[in-house]
Fold each of these.
Amino acid sequence: MYEQVSHSLLNAILDDLKPEIRRQDLRHFYTRLGANFYAIYSLFFTLYGHREDFKPQMLSLVETMAKGYITRSAELERVDILREQDHNWFLSQKWVGMALYTNGFADNLDDLADKTPYFQELGINMVHIMPILMCPTGKSDGGYAISDFRQIDDRLGNMNDIRRVAEEFRKRDILLVLDIVLNHTSDEHEWALKAARGESRYQDYYYIFDNREIPDMFEQTMPDIFPESDPGNFTWNADMQKWVMTVFHEYQWDLNYSNPAVFIEMLDIILFWANHGVDVLRLDAVAFLWKKIGTSCQNERNAHLILQLMKDCCQVTAPGVLFIAEAIVAPVEVIKYFGEDAIIAKECEIAYNATLMALLWDGIATQNTKLLYQGIKNLPAKLERATWLNYVRCHDDIGFGFDDNDVRAVGYEPFAHRKFLVDYFSGQFDASPARGMVFMRNDETGDARICGSLASLVGLESAQESGEPALISSAVNKILLLHSLILSFGGIPLIYNGDAFGVVNDYSYRDDPSKNNDNRWIHRPKINWERAELRKKQGTMEYTLFNAMKKMIAIRKETSAFADFNNRELLNVNNEHLLCFIRFNYQRPSERVLVVANFDANPQYLDLDDIGGRGANLNGRFVDLYSGSKPDTYDRWIVLQPYQFYWLTIM
Ligand code: GLC
Ligand code: GLC
């Protein structure tokens, strides 16, 4: 958009830029800045226009982008240009992700680089390496309490190692995903240390208060994130004799984005990592970026404006880099992290689909898909150039954050239903084979979440103890069922470290004092590569599971109907145990895949009359992409074994 005020300002700013910045060849930079400047200026003005230092801050923002551009390598700029030309590149079905901790997957970053062939073996071409930056020992929140945003944790390696990983990945067309922890720093970060020493410039980087007056006002409406280990949202700092806002752990100080200097520092860090060859940045806990008295301090409008501004600025310098929003919030809120009032995504291009994740677990516990169906039906439509990250498990807990209206609409009472789910997965419900743990029960609200590895939650751990082959195979089938859905739903599937060969809970965290008050460690295992070798040995559970996953991934990549272009039609098929949807090729809509999944422990059938006009006369013409053969039928029914799925195409 051409707008005169901001353009004359842009010219003035460009004249003012430091001479060493001006001398460089900034052709692409100018074009992109020109295209985005109106948006950047308006957002920066909305957030910070009332401040006396607005102009110098605006100059410093443009300088940060220019500096980032100048240090971007020719190779990365080439990638930027290719991605600009093919701007829907990440919506393709070809991408399949995995999330892992460096020292859970390998010994360190160097060893991880050596293990790259494993990703190719399985078909993974996007790897989220969880936080690798400097963190104090014992006060790290699994890497999410960073004390230096530009240093690698020396237990994991150094800058050369991550460079090697990035190169190794780029050579093999694997995308590198790293975290940017935007919401807080460790209390041992230099800014926090300076603040604690009384430097007011750095005290302004955080939310710091002399007494309880304002903290108490905030507390009235702020929920507790870790009520068992870290109740309350403020921590007393004896050095300063002041209160600091600490929403997560007491050693994680919340950054104050009402200060433009904080925004610019964090943008600089984003560009630093973009220039180290990171393809996708996972922005951690984005819902929390803006704090306002009288609110839950989550999903605030200004949090969205900050993300839009980050995106617009990053696009000027490193347009090939994507953002993932990690916002584990209500379905109507999650969708806003793609951007509101827009056609094309303008905040984060990718968002965790926590809604689908929680709904899938509901299906497993109830053996029934009515809530799953209802929740998917009400999943708001995404914007263009936006996609979901579909996952079953990750390094965090599972919260049953469904929309209460959906829960009621299918006939459950929300409180009782959530209690059932927590009891089911923590194994307190008699008929449950699950071996999960309750995470952060909040006695005041009755809320609780669940931890546990995928394998243990679907009953593999208890089945292996019983030694019953039928129970083991039923757990393996549940793992495959869940993955068949995240691989076909639309979006990028994200497989969690260890899930491709059924790694169960790891109880060793209980002996580690820095971990034993956080049972999320139960599902952050270290891969035993000797055991993982069993994936090559026919007849083992690992072989069955791994090879089935590998096959599904390969088929997904070949099935263009699985790309993500709002090309899914959910079907109501009059069978409460089945989830059924059609995926079609958005360019050739006649190319369709009918996805059917049976969540029940008993065989079920799909009545072809129930899939509308398309169904009845198609009997006999279906082929299952996964098995390569015709599905089992009986009369006009397609029959599914317990926990079986089909990806049916028409011959
Ligand atoms: C994110 C991370 C989680 C961490 C939290 C606080 O949600 O996924 O592990 O505890 O942020 O940084
Ligand atoms: C925050 C994160 C969520 C995580 C939780 C920590 O709410 O957004 O992902 O599960 O912290 O348990």
Note: Residues 141-142, 144, 181, 248, 284-285, 326, 395-396 surround alpha-D-glucopyranose (ligand 1) (CB under 6 Å).
Amino acid sequence: MDDLNTATASAADQQPLLEIDGLSRYFDLGKGRRVHAVDGVSLNIGAREIVGLVGESGSGKSTLGKTLIGLHDKTAGSVRWRGETLPARYRAADFRRLAKSMQMIFQDPYSSLNPRMTVGEIIGEGLRLHTGLGTNAIREQVAAWLRRVGLEPDHMGRYPHEFSGGQRQRIGIARALILEPEFVVCDEPISALDVSVQAQVIRLLGELQDNLGLTLLFIAHDLSMVRYLSDRMAVMYLGGLVEVGPSDDVYFDPRHPYTELLISSNPEPDPARERARASVTLAGEIPSPLNVPPGCRFATRCPKVMERCHRERPALLPLKDVSTRQVACHLYA
Ligand code: SF4
């Protein structure tokens, strides 16, 4: 896995599919109040790479994913796709042009499917809008995709409410992938599902990634699952990335104090290892993105805080001893 991770990371360095540079997304609430949801994120993602994006609720993970595929405007910074700088604000023509390149699988399979459309209409909509295919050809492709995600072609005429949560997420996956995009943002695709079906959906996503050569940004809470699925892990805190590196390395040898605490407070799936491990609780709440502290954003909760941390925001820089890993912390400066 280490070799694979290192190879993927170096491939990403050489030929990124996506180059994110200083990307920010703020929301103005009026009266000078501004939410810094995403603040100066830089990350390269290589073709066929799976990057797991982790962090607590409110860290900006979903906003980053939505900004990458144009569902939110960019306040500052840039996103380059195969070398082309994407617009700060998408127009309808940009969505049309990029629909075959980038898609998103949403968190909640209950609210993300239109209840008044049949499953056939939902899955086939992308083909209807973005290709010149006729009705019969679209039906054939929808039937093939229903099989591919483990459903039946005769489910085409049914409505979303007739399906379980896991089946609805399979419908959401077919809808996102029918145009065969290269890059897919998976926004906590299993967090609304029963534990019993989570593994099945993850297995399906892994198979499709492999067969279609997809590049994924996989947003999740569950660090052990992200480690299992992802080549690299990116840890987000209060709008910024604090650590990036090969998943196993970050999981087993975290360097940023926040990553350390996040991993140690994440339950181990193996009961024996869970009993044996020394758990440390991540104390306190993540500060509001309306009142971002100056300096290091983790300073208000960091057990290793120093005077300098309150003044200077640390940049995300490669570690001196492992160039494939990046950490934003003055301890490593
Ligand atoms: Fe902690 Fe300072 Fe590092 Fe921030 S920069 S994580 S406050 S030691």
Note: Confidence is low (pLDDT under 50) at residues 1-13.
